[in-house]
What we know:
Blueprint: E1 6-11, H1 20-26, E2 30-34, H2 43-56, E3 59-64, H3 75-81, H4 90-106, E4 111-114, H5 126-144, E5 148-152, H6 158-168, E6 173-177, H7 179-184, H8 190-197, E7 201-206, E8 208-210, E9 223-225, H9 234-243, E10 250-252, H10 260-281
Helix pairs in contact: 4-5, 6-8, 8-9, 9-10
Magnesium ion is lined by residues 152, 178, 181, 205, 207, 253.
Amino acid sequence: MSHWEIGVFASIDAGLGVHLEVAQELGVPTIQVHAPHAGTRTPAAAAAFLQRCAAAGIRVTAVFGGFEGESYADIATTARTVGLVPEQTRAARLQEMKEISDFTRLLHCSTVALHIGFVPHDTSSVSYRDLITTTRDLLDHVRRNGQQLNLETGQESADHLLQFIADVDRDNLFINFDPANMILYGTGEPIEALRKVGRYVRSVHCKDARWAAADVRGTAWGQEVPLGDGDVGMERYLRTLQEIGYTGPLTIEREIPQDRDRQKADIGHAVTLLQTLRARIAG
Ligand code: MG
């Protein structure tokens, strides 16, 4: 596998990603996929999808879990509805995440990924302790499938995420680093965060964003923008990935499914930008 294969976030039938045909037209060799709805998580559906990927010369590098009832409408709603953190849905979503891990195995993929949600700040709280237990339970299941779990960044500061990973204390828990999320959620300067968590980074998103105004940062979203137009600094981002020894896929995310034409055009430009930077940095 070559250094920094380019990829795109894709959807089978759920989530904000592009359709497989778009990935194929863009000529990218890898995709991450959003897990499909329960009814589509069948052996037959997995086999059919794998066949389409093989025909397109595309490899699935990670499967992202997601759940009914999640909403990213604003930061407060995200905190209330996303991931394994909300207590009233925690047990049901743990079960569903195990099923997503089983589906991921059918796709011959060894990485499951997840927005776990806003990890409680009080590490002595019952909710935090129970989230640790829940995550270990999931990781044990994931291990039986020969897999690891990568946590998406953004909803925690780098330090809080490191604390959580240390408290879970399992060797198949890693990070999917998304620099734009650090900006969108206002949780920290992305390059500094990447250096801190670098040893756990096993997959990444290439996404860009602009900070919200200082007085509302952390309570109101920043703005997601085309790759290279935001505050991440793509060349610095890739140089830092090189510095921490990351050689895995560069998976482009552009979360504007309401405008599919623009989404595809922006991703096309992102592919070109990453190819140029890769040639300059990785040779
Ligand atoms: Mg992301």
